[in-house]
UniProtKB/TrEMBL annotation:
Annotated GH16 domain residues: 43-331
GO BP: any one term: carbohydrate metabolic process
Entry-linked InterPro entries: Beta-glucanase-like, ConA-like_dom_sf, Glycosyl_Hydrlase_16
Family to which the UniProt record says this protein belongs: Belongs to the glycosyl hydrolase 16 family.
Gene3D superfamilies per UniProt: 2.60.120.200
Taxonomy, superkingdom: Bacteria
GO molecular function: hydrolase activity, hydrolyzing O-glycosyl compounds
Full protein name: GH16 domain-containing protein
Organism: Portibacter lacus
Length: 331
């Protein structure tokens, strides 16, 4: 069954260009004249993407409405072991599009490492086999946009069962890296879930290494998924069905700040003119610098060093992405 809500599509088509449309992933779509249309938070959204939101113009989107593999003209797929000593071996076979969403499926399965080298000191090569598989995708370079005036959005359902120990090692993410060497070119984790925390982070270069700024350091209790579900986190209401619903993550750059939102609730922000303390390569990671978009589902790695505990986590896990969109404002 493809994404539904035909009556809503018809209404929007009739309204045409008279209104700018925005929507809330939790319950409704809001039009400029304050008309509201309820949507099902348990189902993919089948509306037409707004061409403009508050002066930001749509320049890239993938609604995942087709059946089968990811669109190669939009995305590059990662292969093999990649970073953070993670356990998963990335391969495109762990993903497909159906019924209006992209499914990234993490599995516990043993496969041969194609780069295996018994004499290598590189952890990516010295593992003969992988015990887990998943997928990771990055937008192609022609879809990179500047951080300064950007609105980047994803609607997704997380592969999380409780937010507790049952989800140990599960690491879904929606993030960006700037064009240039890491971390000088910046990284923004619009969504990162692991070890019970819903994280929103910014990374850049400090003289002592990588500098991280994020919501957990600012308010650890406010970033715990348990508190978001129970309404104890600022801006969130109690929602026992939270993990069964689709939610929206946004990054908005207004020329002064880059701000991250979850379901339109503020998570954290950073100034656009934040400067690398080490300016030898890039002075301003989030100003006059283009970025890409990543969506991936990692397993284990540095935040989850206990392999015995990971072995108790149930698989497969499905990270279900409804859509991703990029808007920019011309200044």
């Amino acid at each position: 069954m493809m994404k539904q809500n035909a009556h809503l599509i018809l209404i929007i088509l009739i309204i045409g260009s008279h209104y700018n449309c925005t929507h809330s992933t939790t319950s409704k779509i809001q039009l400029e004249d304050n008309q509201e249309f309820n949507i099902n938070p348990f189902e993919p959204y089948n509306g037409i993407p707004p061409s403009e939101i508050n002066g930001y113009h749509l320049v890239f989107n993938d609604e995942f409405n087709h059946e089968g593999e990811m669109k190669n003209e939009y995305w590059d797929s990662e292969t093999g072991f990649r970073r953070n000593n993670e356990e998963q071996y990335y391969q495109s076979e762990n993903s497909y599009c159906s019924n209006g969403t992209l499914k990234i499926i993490a599995k516990r399965e043993m496969i041969k490492n194609e780069l295996y080298d018994a004499n290598s000191n590189d952890w990516r090569k010295k593992r003969e086999y992988a015990e887990y598989t998943s997928s990771s995708f990055i937008t192609k370079k022609q879809y990179h946009e500047k951080y300064d005036f950007i609105l980047m959005e994803m609607r997704a359902k997380l592969p999380i069962e409780t937010g507790g120990v049952e989800d140990y090692g599960i690491w879904p993410a929606f993030w960006t890296t700037g064009d240039g060497p890491w971390p000088h070119a910046g990284e923004i984790d619009i969504l990162e879930y692991y070890n019970g925390y819903m994280l929103a982070n910014f990374a850049y270069k400090d003289n002592n290494g990588t500098k991280w700024k994020g919501n957990k350091a600012e308010n650890a209790a406010n970033s715990k998924l348990e508190n978001i579900i129970n309404g104890k986190a600022i801006g969130f209401k109690t929602d026992k069905d939270w993990l069964n619903k689709y939610h929206t993550w946004k990054l908005i750059g207004d020329g002064k700040y880059l701000t991250i939102y979850l379901d339109d609730v503020f998570m954290t922000r950073i100034e656009n003119d934040t400067k690398n303390l080490d300016t030898s390569k890039i002075k301003y990671p989030f100003k006059d610098n283009k970025c890409n978009m990543w969506i991936n589902l990692a397993i284990g790695g540095n935040p989850h060093p206990d392999k015995e505990q990971l072995s108790k986590t149930e698989f497969p896990r499905t990270y279900e992405i409804d859509y991703v969109r990029i808007y920019v404002k011309n200044k």
